[in-house]
Structure prediction request, 151 residues.
Amino acid sequence: MLRRVFLRAAGAVMLAGVVVQPARTQTQDIILFADESLKTSIEGANAFFLSENAFTVIVTYGPSAELARQLEGGAMADVFISAGPQAMDALAGRKLIETSSRADVVRKASVTYPVAVMTSSTNVLASIYVQWLTTPKAQPYFEKEGFTFLP
Prediction:
């Protein structure tokens, strides 16, 4: 009987621990959706970002329109970089990006690449990462691949 009471109490404590825990703000890995044409530049920039900040950026590459469709469908990301404004504008129209975080990072030929934090992001580092991408520290990684750095 004492054992049953103990097990019930232990179960209640474990259940309460699961139910009562508050939502935590993510402060580790940054999840980035980026146009596939940026792959080499982003990999170089992210390696330097990791060395400076000790935070990893997990990247999903693909065509901007496809990535935007995935984000509209509920895919989780902290940051999105689009080739051209169309995909970013579509997300802005659905209020899926923080418009105040939006910035044009680079240009190649006539294509401008905007970046923004997703409204669904709970990662406090997302805005820091976006700001970092627009600093001269990230510039060489883009210019090496033929992009013109805009900020």
Summary: Residues 2-20 form the longest helix (19 residues). The CA atoms of residues 31 and 58 lie 5 Å apart. Strands lie at 30-35, 57-62, 79-81, 103-108, 111-117, 148-149.
